Amino acid sequence: MRYHENGASGWALTWGPLFALSGYGLEWFSGAGANAVLWLSVGAGLAALTALWVYARRRFLSVRVTDDALWQGGERLALADIADISEVDGVDAPLGTRVLGGALGVPRKFCEVPLRLSDGAVVLAWARDGAALREALREALREAVSRTEGTGNSADRKAPGDGGTEAGTG
Q1: Is the whole-model pTM more than 0.85?
Q2: Strand pairing partners for 76?
Q3: For the chain, how big is the Rg over CA atoms in Å?
């Protein structure tokens, strides 16, 4: 994994229970009888709603760059589909450019990262830290190019003075 944004952290799950605990504490300190069952159910309900929110953000707002793909939410873009390393920077995105991840636009508080694909189309990738995403894409594309250039079959390369095999046992 070269770059990862998970969309939401798990600490948000503590909001509901902490709110319920503070409500229970305030009710108990006020002298009125505190209703533990009520505050327990409030905390559980808020935790359940927050769990849905965290799940949705992790599913639809996660960003990952692996050795062979860029993941935006649930959409996968193979790095081989990006034109080349120079096409990570300096690409202008015209109005109406397709946004990766299936959204109508780049999510709020996320930076746009326009990418030119090998077929000439431009798409918008996005991340909270656009510069870090660009750098991760540059590194991954550089290594992908070097892997494809250096993955010829060893039987096809001739070492000097041998009969066509790399080990010289031909």
Answers
A1: no
A2: 71
A3: 26
